[in-house]
Design brief:
Helix content: 25-40%
Strand content: 15-25%
Largest sheet: 9 strands, parallel
Radius of gyration: 21 Å
Number of strands: 18
Distance between the termini: 35 Å
Number of helices: 14
């Protein structure tokens, strides 16, 4: 059972202005931080068992894909690409029931918590029954996502996805996409239902995602964004964009412009927006995206797995661009690994070390971690605190394992360098999400029940093949 806390005493904690010692953090019943008291004494507060850092928001997830991670790693008769992987995904998704989807999502969210993610933006497009018909409750699958987040105890920004077409110019959807397809009114009804279902707990938010420019027409995009504004003013907006060179070529053939160029020219992109992947950018697009204040939603382990390419992170950060990280298809579920792969990709291309320096400090791990926390919070519609912990945020806290051999004798940002670049995936000791303990001594508090439900779901999926 998850234990609610009224606060936590930290011997060492990362705040917006840097590391601090002897800090008391206090939470309210909603799970929001209400006080950050410096030079405090523990009093009756429980004491953190190690250094405390802000939890990482995971800004891009397709939860159902966790169950197929590793199943597409076999060479086919022709050259493999993102597009051949997508066909394998379509075949897998045909078999998922609501019960199985919930069990898969709960396991995934448990894994996220154990690796230091405390909230997730679920880019959710698995809407309908296996024959493509809407469920009696059109929001059935979205409610399953919320139930999974509740079971695992992490924050959720739910993003029902408008997915209407198979290609630019309103091409009819394929049979493999039938579970995804909505018109604007149908999609907005799910957004409204989930707004009402979310309640007022800290870390709960609804928004909207446009699957991609190839999956919605300009008119559908306009109507969906206007509808979102009437349902949830100021809510987050996410979109896949410029992930593949084939997508870029098709967009140019359709509109005469590249995807990011078209979006910036035709839509009021700003800080509410998260452009997921944005892998293939010209220098001008890179500058304009940075200047817009939108978040670049980077998923380095998935982008590497799919052979997408590398985001131009150096020039983007040099222009003041903001980013966060997500685990996307969940080939890996580790906040530290996403940041490590992001930096290593740049090193491989540029053939030098310590490329992505963020801010004034010399710490690569510390700079990347702070930036991804801040960018992720912005993308999820949470209060942003420059990568530290402050009043008004959800009480999302990660306690690192100070006894982990890779972290021994590390202090302040050298601790973050070791966590990002040298930890073995077991450096997280305890996790508090919205004021509730969800991970204790490296183990999720509901781990046995979640794993048992997942095992039943996977067994059922195999029998259904």
């Amino acid at each position: 059972m998850m234990e609610s806390k009224s606060g936590l005493f930290c011997d060492r904690v990362l705040l917006p202005d840097g590391w601090a010692a002897n800090v008391a953090l206090r939470f309210d019943g909603r799970g929001t931080l209400t006080a950050v008291e410096r030079d405090a004494e523990a009093g009756d507060l429980p004491r953190a068992s190690g250094p405390v850092i802000p939890g990482m928001p995971n800004l891009h997830s397709h939860a159902f894909q966790r169950a197929m991670a590793g199943l597409a790693e076999r060479a086919g008769p022709s050259e493999d690409s993102f597009w051949t992987w997508r066909e394998a995904m379509y075949g897998f998704v045909r078999r998922l029931t609501p019960e199985a989807a919930e069990a898969v999502a709960a396991l995934l969210y448990m894994e996220m918590a154990k690796q230091g993610y405390t909230a997730v933006a679920e880019f959710h497009y698995l809407h309908h029954d296996r024959d493509g018909r809407p469920y009696a409750d059109r929001a059935e699958m979205s409610r399953r996502v919320l139930a999974a987040a509740d079971t695992a105890g992490i924050g959720l920004t739910h993003l029902p996805v408008l997915y209407a077409h198979s290609g630019f110019g309103g091409k009819p959807p394929s049979d493999g996409q039938k579970r995804f397809i909505n018109d604007v009114d149908g999609l907005l009804s799910i957004v409204a239902a989930m707004r009402d279902a979310m309640g007022d707990a800290a870390g709960r938010r609804v928004g909207l995602a446009l699957h991609s420019l190839r999956a919605v027409t300009p008119e559908e995009m306009r109507d969906a964004l206007a509808g979102l504004e009437s349902i949830a003013p100021g809510a987050p907006i996410h979109i896949h964009i410029a992930e593949q060179t084939g997508e870029v070529d098709d967009c140019v053939a359709w509109s005469g412009k590249r995807p990011v160029e078209w979006l910036l020219d035709n839509t009021a992109v700003g800080p509410r927006w998260c452009l997921v992947h944005a892998t293939h950018l010209t220098p001008e697009e890179t500058d304009r995206l940075a200047e817009s204040g939108a978040i670049a939603g980077l998923c380095p382990t998935t982008e590497a797995n799919l052979g997408d390419g590398l985001f131009p992170a150096g020039p983007f950060l040099a222009k003041g661009g903001r980013f966060g990280v997500g685990s996307d298809s969940h080939i890996s579920v580790s906040a530290a690994e996403e940041l490590r792969v992001l930096e290593y990709g740049q090193r491989l291309v540029q053939r030098r070390r310590n490329v992505l320096r963020v801010g004034e400090g010399s710490s690569i791990g510390g700079g990347l971690y702070r930036a991804a926390v801040a960018g992720g919070a912005q993308a999820l519609g949470q209060p942003v605190a420059g990568g530290g912990i402050r009043v008004g945020q959800p009480a999302d806290l990660v306690v690192l394992d100070a006894d982990n051999p890779k972290l021994l004798s590390r202090d302040e940002d050298s601790l973050l360098d070791a966590y990002v670049f040298a930890s073995d995936g077991h450096a997280v000791r305890d996790v508090v999400a919205a004021g509730r303990t969800v991970v204790r001594d490296g183990r999720h508090v509901r781990e046995d029940a979640i794993v048992a439900a997942y095992r039943r779901a996977i067994t059922g999926l195999r029998q259904d093949t």
